[in-house]
Amino acid sequence: MALCLALAGLGTLAGCAPLVIGGAAATTASVATDRRTAGEQLEDKTIQIKISNDLAKMLENRGRTNVVSYAGRVLLLGDVPTEADKQQAEEIASKVEHVRQVYNQIRVGDITPLSVRSNDTWLTTKVTSALINTQGVPTRTISVTTERGIVYLMGKLTSTEAQIAAKAASGVSGVNKVVTLFDIVSPESVAGNSGQAAPVTSVPTTSSNHMSEPTPDSAEVQAIPVQ
Hints:
Layout: H1 38-59, E1 64-70, E2 73-80, H2 83-94, E3 101-104, E4 107-108, H3 114-132, E5 142-147, E6 150-157, H4 159-170, E7 177-184, H5 187-190, H6 207-210, E8 220-223
Parallel strand pairs: 2-3, 2-4, 6-7, 7-8
Antiparallel strand pairs: 1-2, 5-6
């Protein structure tokens, strides 16, 4: 997300410690508050490490990639020199065990300058803080990652939580766009603070849903359906 994607690039965050900002690994909250199962959390860490290592071998310093995994759904970010490299990166990621879906957001072009990546890290911090300070947002189960001013949010949220989180992130100064990759779960599955949610059919959300009352300075919100 996450949703701490990394996203210099994907920064993931889970609202509270442990929090990794600007790294390649997705942030994982404690089992008690993360709606992923303990097994999913372990698998996500393994997936990130495996794909990151495989992509580093493939590129041999010709590019930069950032990998975030949430419940087996993998977000690929970074910069590679050719479209063929981008497609190969996706193929590599899709073949890793326990990967359910790959979102290939890698950019074809020169490596993003350090100054931009440093700003991404700062934006991740600001978005994280905004989510923590927004009522109704379960930050410990959200991964936050930023790449070239675009904030990616991942997590298991109810439809209402997803709308609130996206709106809060879009209102952070400096954010160019918010991309949500939320797995929408039922309110019943998270009732009683059980700590884990049973996924239901993912409901694609739209920009208009997330931004029902946009402010003049709000960033665009794009929802990518989760399968």
